[in-house]
Design a protein that fits this description.
The protein has helices at 29-38, 45-53, 56-66, 80-87, 89-102, 110-138, 149-160, 164-172, 177-181, 191-202, 206-216, 221-229, 245-260, 271-275, 278-285, 296-301, 304-315, and strands at residues 4-9, 17-22. It is globular, with a radius of gyration of 19 Å. It is built from 17 helices and two strands. The chain is mostly helical. The protein starts with a strand and ends with a helix. The longest helix is centred in the middle third of the chain and has 29 residues, at 110-138. Bound molecules: fe (ii) ion (2 copies). One fe (ii) ion is lined by residues 163, 206, 230-231.
Length: 316
C-alpha cells in the first residue's frame, strides 16, 4: 500500500509551503506480523513460517540470525518452520518486523544510510528493553495478573515501531537529516526542541507523521497509540488510548534506558540522566504489582551487554 500525506510548513526553514510525504512500500508481512504479536491467540507455527517463506532474502537473513551465537541453539536450523518451533512464534514475528523495516536500507545512499541504521538500532534496543521490563514485571510476585505473555509480545511490537514517523521522515528527506538532527546533540536538546525543529522543517513532527502513516498502513490500534504517546508517558491515564497506561510507561522506561546505553536517536544521554527520568518513578507508582523490584532501573541498565549483542545481531 502506498500512501501520501500533505502537511503545510510555516517554519523559518521552509516558509509557507505544502510538503507531501510518501510512504515507502513495506512488505505486507509487516502489518501481519505486528498484528500476530499483539493478538497472539491462535498464532500457529505454520502461519508464521509461511510469512517468512514469502521472501527468500528475509528467510536467509533470519536463519543466519537464529543460528548466531546470540540464540545459542544446540543444532543449526535450516527451515522457517524449525526456527519458529525453536525460538517461538512471538520472537520470530518480532524478528520479521525488524527485517521488514530494514528492507528500507536500500533506499538510502552511503551518506544517509548511517542515520537510518542508527534509528533502527535505537528501535531494536528499545524493543529489547521494553520486552525485558515487561517480562520482569510479569515474573514478579503478583505481576502475571497484570502483565501477561500477550503484553510481553505487545511491548516488543509497539516499541520497535514507536519512532515510525522518523522512518518516514528519513525516507522522504534523507538529505535534510544531517541539518535537522546532526548538531542537535551538542545542544543537549529536549524532545520538545527536537519536535519543534521537525515542525519547522516539515510542517509536522515525527509523532503526527507516525500516527498518520501507521494508520494508513493499518497497524494495530495499540501500535498507533504507542507511536502517539511515546513522548508523553507521564500523562496519567490516556483514557482514550487503547494502549494500557502501564505499557506506555514500560515503553518510556525502555526508551530512556536505550538512550543511555548508546542507542539514542538523535542524542545519547548518560545513565545518571536516564535514572532521573520521571518514567521510572511512574512505573514504580503504577498499580502494577506490590513487589516490583525497587531497583528496576538499575536492573535494566545491567542488561547492556545483552542489548549490545542483540542490536549487533539484528541490525549489524
Ligand atoms: Fe525513540
Ligand atoms: Fe520519538
Amino acid at each position: 500500500m502506498q500512501a501520501t500525506k500533505t502537511y503545510r510548513s510555516v517554519g523559518e526553514q521552509s516558509p509557507d509551503r505544502e510538503i507531501a510525504l510518501t510512504c515507502p512500500r513495506f512488505p505486507s508481512t509487516l502489518q501481519k506480523a505486528m498484528t500476530l504479536m499483539i493478538h497472539p491467540d491462535g498464532m500457529e507455527v505454520s502461519a508464521v513460517a509461511r510469512m517468512i517463506e514469502q521472501d527468500s532474502h528475509i528467510l536467509d537473513r533470519m536463519l543466519q540470525i537464529a543460528n548466531s551465537r546470540y540464540y545459542g541453539l544446540q543444532r543449526s536450523v535450516d527451515t522457517a518452520r524449525r526456527m519458529v518451533v525453536l525460538l517461538g512464534p512471538v520472537t520470530v514475528s518480532g524478528m520479521l518486523v525488524a527485517m521488514d523495516l530494514l528492507k528500507l536500507r536500500d533506499s538510502f545512499d552511503a551518506e544517509t544510510e548511517s542515520y537510518f541504521l542508527k534509528l533502527m538500532e535505537h528501535s531494536a534496543a528499545t524493543a529489547f528493553i521494553a520486552r525485558h521490563i515487561a517480562e520482569t514485571i510479569r515474573t514478579s510476585p503478583g505481576g502475571s495478573d497484570l502483565v501477561g505473555h500477550q503484553h510481553v509480545g505487545e511491548s516488543f511490537a509497539t516499541a520497535i515501531v514507536h519512532d515510525f514517523g522518523r522512518i518516514i521522515l528519513l525516507f522522504n528527506f534523507p538529505k535534510h537529516v544531517d541539518a535537522l538532527y546532526g548538531n542537535l546533540c551538542d545542544e543537549t536538546s529536549s524532545i520538545s526542541e527536537i519536535r519543534a525543529r521537525e515542525l519547522d522543517y516539515f510542517g509536522c513532527d515525527h509523532i503526527t507523521v507516525g500516527v498518520d502513516f501507521s494508520r494508513a498502513l493499518r497497524f494495530p490500534e495499540v501500535a498507533v497509540d504507542a507511536i502517539r504517546h511515546h513522548h508523553d508517558a507521564s500523562t496519567a491515564r490516556h483514557p482514550q488510548s487503547t494502549l494500557d497506561a502501564r505499557m506506555i510507561r514500560v515503553l518510556a522506561c525502555a526508551h530512556s534506558a536505550a538512550t543511555s546505553m548508546g542507542f539514542g536517536f538523535p542524542c545519547q544521554r548518560s545513565e545518571a540522566e536516564s535514572l532521573s527520568d520521571g518514567c521510572w518513578a511512574d512505573l514504580a507508582k503504577l498499580d502494577l504489582v506490590d513487589n516490583l523490584p525497587a531497583d528496576i532501573a538499575q536492573k535494566t541498565f545491567e542488561t547492556k551487554a545483552y542489548v549490545d549483542e542483540y542490536v549487533s545481531v539484528m541490525i549489524g
